[in-house]
Amino acid sequence: MGRRGPQKHLKRINAPHQWHLGKMGGVWSTRPSPGPHKLRECLPLTVILKERLKYALTGKECMQIAMERCVKVDGKVRTDHCFPCGFMDVIELEKASDRFRLLYDTKGRFILHRINREEAGFKLCRIQKVYITANKIPVAVTHDGRTIRYPDPEVKVNDTVKVDIATGKMSDILKFELGATVTLNRGRNGGRVGTLMHVERHDGSFSIVTVKDAKGHTFATRLANVFVIGASSGKPLITLPKGGGIKKTILEERAEAEAAGRI
What we know:
mainly beta, five-stranded antiparallel beta sheet, 3 helices, 10% helix, 33% strand, globular
């Protein structure tokens, strides 16, 4: 008889590569709970506490930390140790005075980027859908599952809005337009940051955008992979991880490692 219903487990070898888990660390990994981010695009709290921050040695300890209401995700206490945290989420551990924003490094792996209290008060959300409900209420749906009622009429799909975490209200709008500062949250170039140079529309297929980074390297990706983080006139609204989203070649990485004495 075949498997019935959804799977409840996840083997470590099948876990997403951006979790950066060791292959020999055991048979099983944590399967994230259903939530605002997809399984292949999230990082469960257990992996954050055990593999990244080293605050726990076992899954049981991760469960205890979560049940003691020590972990906040986007300003809300999360007691589910399998809760899926995703791109741009703010993770706060008040007892340790730690605040992190979940971003990608230039190799497309999740990175916990340490931020200050002021920056932990907001997050950026990409607009996935704008429509009017059956009760004639205009709403905008974001990449992290939020439904914002009565959004600014200027907001369109692919734009990014700055959301206040305490109130859930949107303030600034970052328009998806040429010259905007963008980062990629999926694909082969995930984690890279650059300026939006060109949009190539393909009706009935995937629209392609061209991005140029600060070193002048250009690369192309699908429109759905692009996340605006800064207006065309200014710098990004969030602080970026070390390296500023500029991908190095393997030769540059080797030269840097030799200079630092790691090789």
